[in-house]
Input
Amino acid sequence: MTSGQSQASIFDVDDKVNNVKPKSIAGLTAFGIVTGVTAGLFVFTTPFISPALRKICLPYVPASSKQIRNVIKALHSPSKFGHTLVDIGSGDGRIVLEAAKYGYHGMGYELNLWLVVYSKFQALLQKGKLSGYAKFKRVDLWKAEYAHYDNAVVFGVDQMMPRLEKKLLQEMQPGTKLVVCRFPFPNLKVSATHGEGVDTVWTYFLPKVVTN
Output
């Protein structure tokens, strides 16, 4: 091989390296961006997705303004019944916050971490408007305790209502007011209804449980 051919070969290799290098860097950069975005989405969406992997899925569906108004009407009808309130599946916290404006001492139970954080933040922002108080806790509704509340608000799904009805009958005091949205309890006697369609709210008073 002549000297001229050797030099040409070396220059050819250099050209190939120079042509590939920018593409490789761009590819690595793109891969890093995609990996970072994917990891971020995983971290952010895990609290939203993981409840759906449970046996009974309780998805986050924001309450409408009419539903919130109907819940407040139900809590006040026929008259205000005690001051303590638990919202089972509190979502973005608006029920608890609205009730606190009327003097209720509310606790929101919610499994989704980000919704709990959001609700607590809103409670801080609205603190001056609340005559009662609004607190929120990340907890599995099946492991939570309900015995010391005068009122309970439930936003559930159809398949969970029989089991939740049984749990509340066992744990809450007779006469406790239950305000239920979207899906009624299967066996308890309805005391009153407010609204219509998807905004319907049912009111129940827990009876005394008779044991044999």
